[in-house]
Amino acid sequence: MRIGELSERTGTPRRLLRYYEEQGLIVADRLPNGYRDYDERFVDRVLQIRGLLDAGLPTRIIKQILPCLDKPRVIHFQDATPEMLATLEDQLERMTARVECLSRNRDAIAEYLEAVRATRAPQA
Amino acid sequence: MRIGELSERTGTPRRLLRYYEEQGLIVADRLPNGYRDYDERFVDRVLQIRGLLDAGLPTRIIKQILPCLDKPRVIHFQDATPEMLATLEDQLERMTARVECLSRNRDAIAEYLEAVRATRAPQA
DNA sequence: TCGAACCCTCACATTGATGTGAAGGTCAAA
DNA sequence: TTTGACCTTCACATCAATGTGAGGGTTCGA
C-alpha cells in the first residue's frame, strides 16, 4: 500500500509517516516511481509507534526497543551488546515507573468520578 | 522552603518549578522579599507533576486533573461541570490506553531480556 | 562592607513532535 | 490530453518543555 492508505488506516498524517522513517523507526520499500510501498505489517507497527510516543517515549528510544518486539521472537544478537541490554533494562524500569504513575493517577480520577456520581445519583 | 530546596528535593530545575507555576500547576506563597515559599506538600505535588509529564500528559491536562487528586478526597463542586467531567472521562480512557500500551511493550521487553539471558546463562 | 549564595524577572535558544505549503513528478480516467 | 488525486523532497513555522544567561535584588557570614 502507498502512504495515503497507511495514513488513513493508522490515523497518522503522511508527514509523520515520513518523519518516523527519517528517524529510522520504519523503513519503507520504494516502487519503481519512487513512491513508498508498505505491507500490512506496517499498520500495527505504526500504531505501536504512536502508542509509545503518546506514552512519552522519544523516537530515539522507540527505535532502540522496536527491534526487540518483532512478532517472531527472534533474538537479534547483533543488537544484544552490553550497552543495548543496559539501555533496555533502563527503559524497562522507566516504563514500569510510568505505568505505576499512570495507574495510580488514573485510579484516583476514577475514584473522583465515582464520588461525584455518588453525590448526584441519589437525588435522581 | 525556598525554591532551591524544593528543586533539590524533587530533582527539578528551578526553571521548571517557575514554569509549572506559570502554567498554573502550583501556586507558591511569597515571602516579604518576593521569594517563593513552599511547604512540604509541594514535594509530592511536584513529583506527581513530573511523573505525569514523563508519562506524556501535557501541563494543560495535568492542571485539570490535579485538583481532583488532592489528599483529603474533597469534591470540588465548582469544578464538576459537565465539561469537566467529560474531560476527566476522556483522560481516564486515554490514560488506560497508555497504561495498556506501556504494559504490553514493557512485558515484551522483559521477555526479550529473559530470552537473551536464557541463551547466555547455560553457557556459563 | 564585601563576597558568596541565594532569589527575582525577562528573554532568547533549543529540542522533538508536528503543521503547512511550495514546487514538481506520476498516473488513471474523462 | 488534460484534470485531479496521488506521490516526492525541501523548508519554514509552531508548540510545549526545557536550557541558559543577563541584569539585578537579598541575606548572611568573614
From TrEMBL, chains A, B:
InterPro entries recorded: DNA-bd_dom_put_sf (IPR009061), MerR-type_HTH_dom (IPR000551), MerR_fam (IPR047057)
Residues of the HTH merR-type domain: 1-68
Matches recorded under CDD domains: HTH_MerR-like_sg3
Segments passing through the bilayer: none
SUPFAM superfamilies: Putative DNA-binding domain (SSF46955)
Signal sequence segment: none
Keywords: DNA-binding
Keyword NADP: no
Superkingdom in the source lineage: Bacteria
PANTHER family hit by this protein: HTH MERR-TYPE DOMAIN-CONTAINING PROTEIN, REDOX-CYCLING DRUG-SENSING TRANSCRIPTIONAL ACTIVATOR SOXR
Name listed for the protein in its UniProt record: MerR family transcriptional regulator
Organism per entry: Streptomyces spirodelae
Lineage: Bacteria, Bacillati, Actinomycetota, Actinomycetes, Kitasatosporales
